[in-house]
Design brief:
alpha/beta; 7-stranded mixed β-sheet
Length: about 400
């Protein structure tokens, strides 16, 4: 750290200690398996809740080992996708009965997008365009391309700010990300949802980088369909199942492109003809992945008694403080923040543009500060309010400055 900035360190370190002492969520940190590492990559993989290994051990040794097939009924395996969906619902502002857990985010994007096109065309057969976020995570783009080919639609890429200008009478469905995975920019979910509806189309929101970090308000804003992963801010574990939200009034018309025996009205009837189940169950496909699903269910216990508004308040405070520390410690001109300063436009991560970012992140990890890198020049630092402290933020900025100095 350069000498003219070193004097700021004691003040910011003391401020971090006071902020941590006053933090209403500080007790949650003890519920996670953490060490001396500053872990700022929860926007890729959340930390392990400490009680999960014991719960999973019971699933394996007792529910599977002893009860075996009986656990589908006696241990509630069969109803897990809806039950766990109802636990996620309050975290994204949804009433019960609208979320089903299962499959991957990619599979759920496909189900939601094709179903949205089918519903739009049932009302207006002239709708033959899918609008997709041009800045999206690559998989969403790949799925949108495939969905367009399957449905005979034309794909229209557009940055979120440009979406209102490309909507029209031919728009069937729009696929958008709530936050940009590179920069952490938060997009206007309420405004864009209204614009899509005004054009007579349906919207699918990808919540992977916002659910569990900030209020989403799916019901309040009239979102049609939404998908999201559970291994980031929801801490469900690597590869934990994703979820699909279908607004209650759309459920009778939800026509999944992947009908399976689990989404059948009589799954054990073994009938050759498909008849869709009622409600969110239409989003199910095949046999649930029970081990990872029940690990997720256990992980969600850390949310008991926690309000998303409190999480959002701490998230903004953390990212504000980290940016202040970076400004105080890091030599001028070495990094540039890509993350919006305006709170309404910020998710729960800070992205810094930096020359040689890949090598810088490697050296940060070696020194106990774990974030991640996105080509060609972005350092990403994710702030999970349930377990990241203000002391973590101050230390990360200080180590970054030392690494760059």
């Amino acid at each position: 750290m350069s000498d003219d900035r070193a004097g700021a360190a004691p003040d910011l370190a003391a401020e971090a200690a006071k902020l941590d002492a006053d933090d209403a969520l500080r007790d949650r940190r003890a519920q996670f398996v953490l060490d001396d590492t500053v872990y700022l990559d929860g926007n890729s993989l959340g930390a392990l809740p400490a009680h999960v290994p014991g719960r999973v051990a019971d699933v394996i040794s007792r529910q599977w080992g002893e009860l075996r097939i009986r656990s589908w009924d006696e241990s509630g395996w069969w109803t897990a996708p809806e039950r766990i969906g109802d636990r996620i619902a309050p975290l994204v502002g949804a009433a019960l009965g609208q979320i089903v857990v299962g499959d991957s985010t990619s599979v759920n994007v496909f189900k939601a997008l094709v179903a949205a096109v089918r519903m739009a065309r049932a009302a207006d057969g002239g709708r033959d365009e899918i609008v997709v976020d041009a800045t999206t995570f690559p998989t969403d783009g790949y799925i949108a391309q495939s969905a367009a080919r399957l449905t005979g639609c034309r794909l229209v890429p557009a940055a979120p700010a440009e979406v209102p200008g490309v909507l029209g009478g031919r728009t069937a469905a729009v696929l958008l990300n709530h936050a940009d995975y590179r920069t952490g920019r938060l997009h206007d979910l309420p405004g864009l949802t209204r614009a899509v509806h005004d054009a007579g189309a349906l919207v699918v929101w990808d919540l992977c980088h916002t659910a569990g970090a900030l209020p989403v308000g799916l019901d309040a804003h009239g979102v049609d369909l939404a998908v999201g992963c559970t291994y980031k801010y929801l801490n469900g574990g690597p590869g934990s199942p994703a979820y699909l939200y279908v607004r209650a009034d759309l459920q009778p018309r939800f026509d999944s492109p992947l009908p399976g025996w689990n989404s059948h009205a009589e799954p054990f009837g073994m009938r050759p003809e498909f008849e869709a189940a009622d409600g969110a169950l239409r989003g199910r496909v095949g046999t649930p992945d029970i081990l990872s699903m029940l690990a997720l269910e256990a992980a969600l216990d850390v949310w008991d008694g926690v309000g998303v508004d409190a999480v959002r308040a701490k998230s903004l405070a953390l990212t504000d403080f980290f940016l202040r520390c970076v400004g105080a410690y890091v030599p001028k001109g070495r990094v540039e923040s890509l993350t919006p300063a305006v709170h309404a436009e910020r998710g729960s991560q800070v992205a810094l543009r930096c020359a040689g970012a890949g090598d810088v992140m490697r050296r940060l990890v070696e020194r106990g500060v774990v974030g991640d890198y996105r080509a060609p020049d972005v350092l990403r630092f994710g702030f999970t309010p349930l377990y990241v402290s203000f002391g973590d933020a101050e230390r990360a900025a200080r180590v970054l400055a030392d690494t760059l100095d």
